[in-house]
Amino acid sequence: MSSISTHVLDTGLGRPAAGVPVRLSRVAAGEVAVLGEGITDADGRITDFQPGLESGTYQLWFDVAAYAGASGQSMFFPEVTVTFTITDERHHHVPLLLSPFAYSTYRGS
Hints:
- By secondary structure, the chain is mainly β.
- The protein has a single domain (about 5-105), classed as Immunoglobulin-like, CATH 2.60.40.180.
- Helices cover about 5% and strands about 50% of the residues.
- It contains 1 helix and 9 strands, in the order ββββββαβββ.
- The chain has one helix at about 65-70, and strands spanning about 5-10, 15, 20-30, 30-40, 45, 55-60, 80-85, 90-100, 100-105.
- Strands 1, 2, 5, 8 and 9 form a 5-stranded mixed beta sheet that branches.
- The longest helix has 7 residues, at about 65-70.
- It is globular.
- GO terms for molecular function: hydroxyisourate hydrolase activity.
């Protein structure tokens, strides 16, 4: 069984993105089932998403608009959804790098 964590960094401001609402869902047979929700901590992290995830397709949805409003910024993308597949039992870390007009993500460690 796998586990998932995330880390959001505001590259425009050069600091962790604290207060970003994030939702973890599983995608199967065209259905999306929410497994958990959280808000990034002062270091921009959520480390306690539901452990024990089986192989399959998952999504992390980031409410960028809520973060932008709370931090007094304007962001071109109001939300980001990262869809990924778990195929093994390792820990999966999915960071998100934000800036006002772009975002990127990768498979972290």
